[in-house]
Amino acid sequence: MNTIEQIISGTVPNMNSSSQSGGQQQGSGGQSGSQQSGGSQGSSYSSNTTGKQRDQFLCSDILATEKHVSSVYDTCIFEFKDEQIRNALNHIQKEEQQHGKQIYDFMSANGMYS
User: Which residues are CB-neighbours of 2 under 8 A, at least 6 positions away?
Assistant: First the structure.
């Protein structure tokens, strides 16, 4: 979110700074931890319960949103003149794609994706 706020304020974000990559690594570690707990939750989804159906609906909606957001970033990357801004948007798009993969992996592990 800080990257977008910097772009809106007219500042070109520095995507090579150590604080940017350090924050991303820390965020990725937290994501994998939650993904592991999601995997253990999969055993409680052995039957087609209402809870699983709700979770499947929410995950499907979130995954569709991630796909849409990624496609919007894709369009913006091609339309921005400033290469540094394009690089910043490309970085954000890669994060969105990673979020989508994590959602897909959770859904697949829990029999929610067909």
Answer: 13
